[in-house]
Amino acid sequence: LLVELKDNKGKSIIDNLFNTKKNFMQIVSQQVYNTQIEAIALKTTKNQSLDNILEAAYTSPANRKAIRQTMKVVNEIVTLAGKGTHPDKIFLTFQRSKEQEGKLTTDRASSLLKIYRGIKDPLCTKELVDELSKNVRANLIKTKEYLYYQQLGRDALTGEIIDKTDLRNYAVLHIIPRSVVVDDSINNLVLTKVKNAKGSIIVQYGSKNISDISMSVKDFWNRLQKLGLFSKGKLRNLTTDLTELNQYEKQGFIARQLVETNQIVKLLATILQGQFPHTKIIEVRQEQIANIRYQLDIYRLRDLNVYYRGMDAYLAAVVGTYLYTVYPKARRFFVYGEYLKQDKNNREEGQFKTSGHSFNFLWKLFYGGEDEIYVQGTNNIAFNKKDLLQKIKEVNNYKFQNVSLATGTRRSDLFKQTIYPRQERDVKKSRTLITKKNGLFTDIYGGYTGNVNSYFVLVQTKYKKDPDKFNLYGVPNRYVAMLEQSKSKGNYETKLKEVMEPIIKNSNKRMIGYKILKDRILYNQIIEDDGYKFFITSAQYRHNFRQMILSDQSKKILMDYVFDPNFYRHKKTEDVNNDKDAKLIKVYDEILYQIDHYLQIFTIGHHIDKLKKARPLFEKCTLAEKVQALNDILIIAGSNQTELALKPLKTTKLTFSKRNCPLTKDAVFFYQSPTGMITRKESIKDILKQNM
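and the corresponding structure tokens:
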């Protein structure tokens, strides 16, 4: 890697590291090296098993799991398509989870604080440092706040000091407009009072003077870059005159729109190309998908339901097909391995235009005046714009999608790590303790609490007078190794009974007998009982599996006030400042209707009655409280593993929990394939027949 790969001048990566100021990532991501790396990767992975490839890959266990799941989905679809078939195209895109995005923001803010503490500059005041430190500790840094601190509390385009209490009147502006380039990264965002800026920022604002610090706006940007607050990429965007771009700058813009740099996507593309050598593996940047969502008002509400994932996949296929068809000369940027087939002597390679107006490859779809979209450089019609946009909107209005969950065991901690004293010395007298070691009895030495289960078993318990009960009990992680060993010795059922008997008896003092009906029920198992579907993440907590559907009007209101009040991801609504409370009350009523009619899981704990009773309180809540309450209700109602108390509505914690997960005889277990296209059902009645 460092010595044997050469660029066009015969220089290796180590030569460039020694002789230039570029770092390793800047050098290795150049196309001349990238081409060689991917050619070697493709050759190396050919005829290798997935396990061997992943074992050699430099990637995290979470990424390995994601790739394995993806390959299961691909292989199942190919199998269902019929023997001898292979996919024509596979579209790949990468989307961070909500947790990953939150971690990214937190990490970014923490890095900014480190930079702050090392700055010795009068513009970086002690008040700013203390304020940033306090907000980082409280995890209060969002995009707008991050930009505020990155700009040392000043407007990026005027240099004026921003009053932090007036932050709501400042906008997050794209440095290079969406119509020109699709880039929602921090490097293309600034905080300013300027609502719209057409054309080059440097031309409009660079020469303006900042009176209180006696420098131009451009000098202020340069100062922020020297202090380490602005990256070179951000400074480049700010100082780019879009009317004076040279050939290399244009190529850079084009590459940034089309080239996917995410390493998970690259690794997955290599694996897929090795398995399907005749398939086009098309990599689609998430920014292109976000652009379609923004332009067509296709909202991405993560806490409403999980259908946004399916829509993202569909839009990836739309964008990939559009780019592949309309811009054939650009394919080497986004079709895996395509540049390996290019004629090295072809000087015309890559000399193409996007639209003549911008570097936004979807310009013709959103801004062009003609209905017919042609293959670039030809008279061949690729798409009819109206038909394509209508089809996208039609798919977005689908009320049902297949949803499947990855099931599995948990093999991490054996129990929570806190050690508690024996009961007589414990403040809380009701803890059930686990021994620290064999022979160290909990009534003398204390012990651990918080047992962690690996999987579950279905148990039937019998009583003298009462009818039989059916419950799920967790198999403790600390016994799993012993149980697995017992399988090879042929005494697994005996050992399982030894492990589970004290757990079952402890929960059923009056039972006269029990039977383990089903072994190894996994986390995220989907069950239908009492008229509602749920999945399990413990022997106690249930989580709603049915997806909530709301009207387009309600989704727009939620975006305006709850999920995107700063309008980063959707267009600003004209009447957004009118009738705010009335709009949110209307959404509350629609959510109540949906829960009452379709989400029967809310009958647990009479939660639906609590929400109905709380409606008058909701009306009296402040706007901020209404926003918080709606957000929390959607988190609870969605397929989220979270239970919350709605503080503004004065409700107790809305928890779908029942100890040991009691089930009726009519309960049905759903076993899904990775795509969810194949489902097998098994009822407790069927299990009882098998155990007779």
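(Above: one complete record from the training split.) Residues 453-530+664-692 form one domain.
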